[in-house]
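Researcher: Let's do a round of design. I'm pasting the structure tokens now; please hold your answer until I've finished.
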């Protein structure tokens, strides 16, 4: 990897070369869209958008723009009351483009079968969604 490329994949604030971001959110009844309090998959994609925005701000100092998903896989259901950890990291840096990988794991599951307020911590967490996407940074900010 060239020295200029190495600089571009470093978090400006922390100096962390990995550049991973994590958001943990509890899915609410408002997020449930389908029967059985099932959360719409678009809600998880919105979390990935937030993760991507933070990654771009840390790398480029600008929110950039999410332009495409190359892959989205829904691997487990998410329900109201579940806690989701959405993670992302930059995997490739172009002149203006930044490819990213995302995962959303269910770390706490609601257990309405036990009681209305029951939940359990999951060990190991359950992969709910996996995705790959591309964002772009304005030309004046992107490195060449």
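Researcher: That's everything. Go ahead.
Model: Designed sequence:
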């Amino acid at each position: 990897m060239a020295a200029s490329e190495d600089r571009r994949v470093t978090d400006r604030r922390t100096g962390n070369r990995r550049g991973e971001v994590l958001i943990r959110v509890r899915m609410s009844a408002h997020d449930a869209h389908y029967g059985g309090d099932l959360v719409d998959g678009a809600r998880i994609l919105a979390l990935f958008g937030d993760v991507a925005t933070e990654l771009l701000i840390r790398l480029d100092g600008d929110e950039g723009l999410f332009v495409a998903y190359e892959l989205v896989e829904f691997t487990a259901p998410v329900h109201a009351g579940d806690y989701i950890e959405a993670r992302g990291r930059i995997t490739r840096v172009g002149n203006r483009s930044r490819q990213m990988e995302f995962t959303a794991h269910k770390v706490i599951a609601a257990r309405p079968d036990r009681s209305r307020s029951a939940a359990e911590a999951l060990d190991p967490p359950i992969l709910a969604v996996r995705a790959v996407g591309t964002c772009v940074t304005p030309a004046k900010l992107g490195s060449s």
